[in-house]
Amino acid sequence: VKNSGGNGYEFYNEAISKMIKEEEELDDAISKALEKEEFYLVYQPIVDITTSEIISNEALLRWDNESYGRLPIPVVIEFAERKGYIEDIGFWILKEACRQNKAWQDEGLGLTAISVNISVHQLEKPDFVDKVKIALELSNLAPEYLELEITETTAMENVNEKLATMLKLKRLGVKISIDDFGTGYSSLSYFTKFPIDTLKIDKSFVRDMLEDSNAMTIIDTIINMAKAMDVAITAEGVETLEHMEKLKIMGCDKIQGYYISKPQKAYVLEQMLKKLP
Ligand code: C2E
Ligand code: CA
Ligand code: CA
Ligand code: CA
């Protein structure tokens, strides 16, 4: 970076102060985004691999902001986590997702569940279970229709603490999925301890499965372990019929991905739900 002729340090300092300025601008924008109602959720169906019936819809955060609308959402989440905004944003996501799902149920669009991604920063807070309870109470959604997605990496950080929180969540009646499974290199046997309902196979394995026998072996191992644990399996990132058919043969229970549907705004998904028999 510091190599633009002269001593180069001016350029270097300029680059740093530009970065700091951008950080400050982004911080400012994110801190106001909730209030300005710039966040919204999109929804992606998770379907039964044999009946194609929608079992759940995963809520995914989106942010429309003049200057930052195009930032990839993992960057936004990471920034919100680092700056301490994720708790408030996450609580809003939880409430909004529950509200929307209950509205669909009340409209007679089927008794699907809603899957909500939970950041490690939310899960670690002592009042997290209370916040889940509040989101359920405010929306009147029955707990069995709320599924919390916790990444493998999150679950493995301070394992005992996470285990205790998960047990409380289970007592509340909500469902738990382990997201991005297979990427954390944790011992598979560890997961027999967790009170989980679903393992979600990370999309990187699904993407590679038809060309890479290692990816296929990993998927096969995860599915077999899940069967032994009596845990359901969702494959994410399913983009083609070929992937789906192979996964069906391998015993996968649920799939999610562009082959079924991209994440959609609520009203678009509603149209889809209304067309279903
Ligand atoms: P994730 O939870 O693993 O979500 C799945 C991501 O894969 C989504 O990206 C989705 O749009 C994308 N996807 C779905 N189907 C396909 C497919 O067939 N092929 C490919 N290549 N991709 C597919 P998105 O929405 O950009 O989210 C990225 C990540 O950001 C999420 O990964 C999750 O870790 C995080 N995230 C998104 N929304 C939230 C949220 O509300 N809260 C938290 N804490 N994290 C969120
Ligand atoms: Ca997820
Ligand atoms: Ca209530
Ligand atoms: Ca995932």
UniProtKB/TrEMBL annotation:
**Location in or out of the cell:** Cell membrane
Domain EAL: from-to ranges: 23-277
Instruction: From the Swiss-Prot or TrEMBL record, give the protein name.
Output: Diguanylate cyclase (GGDEF) domain-containing protein
Q: Please give the organism.
A: Acetoanaerobium noterae
